[in-house]
Write a structure and sequence with these properties.
The complex is a heterodimer. Chain A is mainly alpha-helical. Chain A has a single domain, classed as Helix Hairpins. Chain A contains four helices and no strands. Chain B has one domain: Up-down Bundle (Four Helix Bundle (Hemerythrin (Met), subunit A)), CATH 1.20.120. In chain B, helix 1 packs antiparallel against helix 2 and helix 2 runs antiparallel to helix 3. The longest helix of chain B has 26 residues. The chains are: A mainly alpha, B mainly alpha.
Chain lengths: 109, 167
């Protein structure tokens, strides 16, 4: 009953974690290199999804469904973040007539 | 064997569409690439036996979040407002590459240090709505679930209040 011949042929945990790491790095690069505020939010979405892959992969490899429940919570959090983030984008566009992050220097950062 | 082939095909497709998200200048093209990434990720979740998470991924991300993104992009009429492309050696791109490479190196090293866990056999109903629902609603995680719904309500009201001109 415990034979895993068919499953062992599948990719190991390392492959899943590496995929998540690659996606996360793509997201970081996007956040740091893009100037468009909406594109930055898209990159943040990529990073959040990479985290979800990790949660679901660990859930599967440990046979514990709790990881999937946490992934669902994380989806809810991300959706709230996107809603507020896009509302802020609209506010910025109204105030500055553009969403180039280079021009958002009100705090002189 | 077949599983591995499918996984690597899906993984390559996911990474390529993820790269498209950050390299397209046109925000609409970025958003559409993001939808494609979400669909590939949903397929990957199915491979992990996470059926309900895969359904949620398509419904929430590819559905609701994408509608929000595309709606805002079209509302603001942003067409090619991002003047720089990927092969750009401005300080911004270099810093991005350096930080991403640094964090990626840390991630790879820590992944290599992990103890390998074999994918054990699980029951047929692993990851179905019933199983996940039992975990969430069966006591311990009921309060966090309700807090999450309160958070979504607050976020919705907050977004409306922020974006509305006059309340």
């Amino acid at each position: 009953m415990t034979t895993t011949a068919g499953l062992a042929a599948g990719p190991g945990l390392h492959a899943w974690l590496l995929l998540a790491a690659v996606l996360f790095c793509i997201g970081i690069y996007g956040v740091l290199s893009r100037r468009n505020l909406v594109a930055i939010l898209c990159s943040v979405e990529l990073m959040a999804n990479a985290v979800n892959i990790n949660l679901v992969a660990f859930s599967r490899f440990h046979g514990d469904l709790l990881g999937q429940a946490f992934a669902l919570f994380s989806v809810a959090l991300t959706v709230a973040e996107v809603g507020i983030g896009l509302a802020i984008v609209i506010l910025v566009y109204r105030a500055r007539k553009g969403i180039d992050v280079d021009e958002l220097d009100l705090l002189r950062g | 064997m077949l599983q591995a082939v499918i996984f690597y095909l899906l993984a390559i497709a996911t990474v390529l569409s993820g790269l498209a998200v950050i390299t397209r200048r046109n925000p609409i093209a970025s958003a559409v690439s993001l939808v494609v990434t979400f669909f590939f990720l949903a397929a990957l979740y199915v491979m992990l036996g996470a059926h309900f998470v895969a359904v949620t991924q398509v419904l929430v991300y590819a559905g609701a979040v994408m509608v929000l993104f595309v709606f805002v992009i079209m509302l603001l009429n942003l067409r090619g407002t991002d003047p720089r492309e990927l092969p750009d050696l401005a300080p911004r791109g270099l810093v991005g590459l350096a930080v991403a490479g640094f964090i990626g190196m840390g991630l790879v090293v820590s992944i290599d240090a992990l103890r390998l866990v074999d994918m054990g056999p699980v029951a047929d109903d692993f990851g179905t709505i019933q199983q996940v629902g039992t975990i969430i609603f069966d006591g311990t995680y009921l309060l966090p679930f309700e807090v999450a719904s309160a958070l979504l309500t607050v976020a919705m009201v907050g977004a409306v209040v922020l974006a509305k001109r006059e309340i």
